[in-house]
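Model it.
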Amino acid sequence: MTQVMSHCSGLSFGVRCVLLRFSSLTNRTEVRKLNCSPPEIKRDDTVEYLWDRTEANRNRNFLFDEEKKRQRTLTPRIEKIEVNLYNIKPHEDVTLLMNRNMSTPYHCAQHVSELLTKRSVVALTDEKDLWDMHRPLVDNCRLTFKHFKDENPSEVNKAFWRSCSFSLGMVIQRAFKSDIPVILHSWPKPSVKCGSFIYDVQLPSLNDWKPSPSELRSLTSMFWQLKANSMPFERLDVSMNLAKDIFQDNVHKLKQLESISKESNDEQRITIYRLNDHLDFSIGPMIANVGQIGRVSVTCVHKLDSSIENLYRFQGVAIPTDLPIHFFAFRVLLDRGAKPLLQSIPP
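Modeled.
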């Protein structure tokens, strides 16, 4: 039986290491039209020690917020779209009446069950386009939800590793003392076979730095504190010029944007993600929220042979929350993840 519903969107730990700071709805057919906007995703004050309070980061977030507001003004009135949910066993297929450019796959899942809402990692529209769970839907579509226990979890795994790399960049940006510059570079495309997620970072003032076990544990502790708050990944597509303004303080990000611009054109849209107050760009999609990352550990940091001075590769291993693993098996993954990965080194 098809149902029609309407949606209203309504480490400082006090201890310092040498370099790192620890610093369903009813089954009745129902149609409702409500004029309200989706709730704002607010920054999480419980991870205050993970906030980047630099002027550059405040400027990045200001530009992100202003563009987000501007894009919302482009939808002056609420328009309805039909979203057909299918393959949502044990529930029946359902048709939802949602709000164009406001409602997201996450909102759709909320109309079905709490289990579907919690386990869904990404969505698939019209059986072809991967869609972030918190990305507004723009037209009528068929929607299905992907999770870690799918028969073919390939795309879900890529989103997971991509999100882990993004989160690792956030941790690294905030881990070092203020007198040690940290310039995020990039992370290679996710490759499950390599056994680790990666982020390459320039540390200009550190020559031949080899982190101690306690410093690796500090990074891991910050990661655990970050994922404990289940913050969602926000997505925003912006113009090339705005992207350059947002990352104007990062020479590596600017070069990457310039390269993208030359390969395409100035009309190219750049997808920027935000986790709490941390911004980075990626083709996406990301997982629904950082709480879907389960057991995690930063396993290795090593210097790369690159023309970029003092470029280091940070590696980590993680398991999704929905896939519990025995500590012995995880130890095997840790040992494998501690081996330096040397592919895709920036020139």
